[in-house]
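Reviewers of the previous submission asked for a worked example of the structure-prediction workflow described in the proposal, so we include one complete record here. The input consisted solely of the amino acid sequence. No template or homolog information was supplied to the procedure at any stage.
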Amino acid sequence: MDKKTLSRDGTPIAYQRTGTGPVVVLVSGAMSTGATVAPLAAALSRRFSAVVYDRRGRGESGDTTPYAVEREVEDLAAVIGAVGGDAALYGISSGGALALRAAAAGLPVRRVAVYEPPFDVREDRAADHARYTEELERALAQGRRGDAVELFLRVTGLAEQMIVNARQSPMWPGLEAVAPTLAYDDAVMGDGTVPRDLLAAVTVPVLAVAGDAGPAWMREAARQVAEAAPQGTYRVLAGQTHAVEPEVLAPVLAEFYGARGPSSGSGPEPAGPD
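From that input alone, the workflow returned the following structure tokens.
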């Protein structure tokens, strides 16, 4: 990151801008920094001014306690202000939930695209989500960062042996370093369900995208996001998992961001049944 801006509470937020054209700000998900979405930014920079940033508590950005989701929305507002005053947004996973919150809060956002925001649409999952929140808070309060990371990886469906291997890998210290931000992403996700009331307040076009090679519930979550947004559109990308390939996603985003006027007849057409 080569630049910094100050959020409303004084927290320095690091960001980087590449390319020229309309501004698109990319929001990363859990356990990640702006570098995670940099490859997608590079693909978008052929037509847009693509901005990546480190969310608070990660990478080169600072952090200020106590945490609140509103502070992360203010961080995003500061980045948008620093790069011109308005922007389109893209968010992956829980970063998508944050982007939607920012749009609902009235930030100067033209359009919002999200990829597989992990709202859990499966039945009887409320107790599981509450248990995860409780165990995560306990692990972090006790300084057990490694256990917090393991808990998150287990919830994402990673096999136990893969978790053991990850803990022994060179990347593990980096994961533990950002472990406290797992609580931030958990807060951004709310109760874990699709936030229909919040989505109803998003007045700009929303594109919800999912891959057809991942879990069906993630496609359903994206579909429900598009359904709940007043100007929502749903797309499914063939052969893509949660680790979506930038060169596959970028043209879809470029089409959406490059459209003019209201979403009807201007954005990508909704996909058929998956």
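The longest helix spans residues 126-141. We consider this example representative of the routine output the project will generate in years two and three.
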